[in-house]
Structures are given as structure tokens and as C-alpha cells.
Amino acid sequence: RCVIKELESLGKALYGAKLIAQRFQIRNCSHHKDPVSGSACLLSMIEEGNPHHFFIATQDQDLANKVKKKAGVPLLFIIQNTMVLDKPSPKSLAFVQKLQTNQLVPEHQKQSIVQLKEKEGLAKQEGEKRRKRKRAGGPNPLSCLKKKKKKTQEGQEPSTEKKKRRKRKRNR
To answer: What is the similarity comment for this entry (predicted)?
Structure first.
């Protein structure tokens, strides 16, 4: 509602933008009695971790920079008649990484696991890293095969006879 009020106050120059804004679903904000600027209203709606999963679409660089400082808020903008979804901000990436690590194993369970490992003597000690030694391999088993002897009979010598070759006739 604050954005529409701001567009109405700016006059006929932004009448088209006001019509476009009125087509979308209007969300109630906490300051409907005393409207504030559109950017301040949008920032207040995504204040506590963006619980309604809003996207922010803006061409205002100040608003975009403020949105990037908050985790979990997707940012849309327009470049040459194309809507572009901005890459996640470093805050959002850090928030997701923290959330994933906390979901795997809670902190109190991590501490109890470490304590139990120390108690049982299973904790890894830095000086105890052992590498598996490579053992010398034997010779290649294919090179160890016995050579095959040629079978020659006493009455016959290896074939020294010339084979008859057929001549090919050329057709001209």
C-alpha cells in the first residue's frame, strides 16, 4: 500500500507504473495509517528473515544494496527488457552454509561426541597419522610364462615350399 501511495503522490509521470503495481496482490504493511516511502516499506516487510519469502524487484541501487545485506531475499532487476535474478549475496550464502551445518548435527551433540571419543581413546591425534606402505610387487605374471616350442617332425622341415600365387588379369 505504501508503494501505491508513493506512486499516486508522484503524479501523472508514473501513472503507468501505478497501474502495473495495482494489478498485483497488495500486502498489508504495518504502517497503512501513516505511509512511508516505498523502499522503507519493502525493507520493513523483509525485516525478520523474510518469513513470507518475498522477492524484491527494483531498479533502485540503494534499495538493492540494502537488500543484499539481508540473508535470504532474492533480488530481481531488469536489463534490456529482460528480468534477471541476481546471484545470492555473500550474506545469503553464509546463512545457508550455517543452516546446513546446524541441521546435520546439533552443537551439543557434537560436544558430547568429542567427549565420548576422548573417553574411549578413539579421538584422532595429530601425530598418529599413518600411511599405508606400498609393498614391492612381484614380476609381471605374463612375463613368467614358459616359451612355447615349435613342433617340427623329423621328416618335414619347416615349409620352405613356395606357394603358388595367382596372377590377376587386368581388364582394359
So the answer is: Belongs to the UTP23/FCF1 family. UTP23 subfamily.
Please give the backbone phi and psi of residue 139, each rounded to the nearest 5 degrees, phi first: -70, 165
C-beta pairs of 87-93 under 8 Å, 24+ apart in sequence: none
Provide the CB-side half-sphere exposure for 102 (13 A, CA).
Answer: 6
Q: What's the pLDDT tens digit per position in 14-73?
A: 888 888 888 888 888 887 778 788 888 888 888 877 788 888 888 888 988 988 888 888
CB 85 within 8 A of CB 108: no
Closest to 63 in 3D by CA, of 81, 76, 50, 79 = 76
Read off the amino acid at residue 42. L
Which among 77, 87, 28 has a CA at the least distance from the CA of 56? 77
Q: Tell me the longest C-alpha to C-alpha distance in the chain.
A: 121
- Three-class secondary structure assignment of 34-80: CCCCHHHHHHHHCCCCCCCCCCEECCCHHHHHHHHCCCCCCEEEEEC
Strand partners, 79: 82
pLDDT score of 163: 63
Percent pLDDT > 90 in the chain is: 1
Q: Is the Cβ–Cβ distance between 79 and 57 less than 8 Å?
A: no
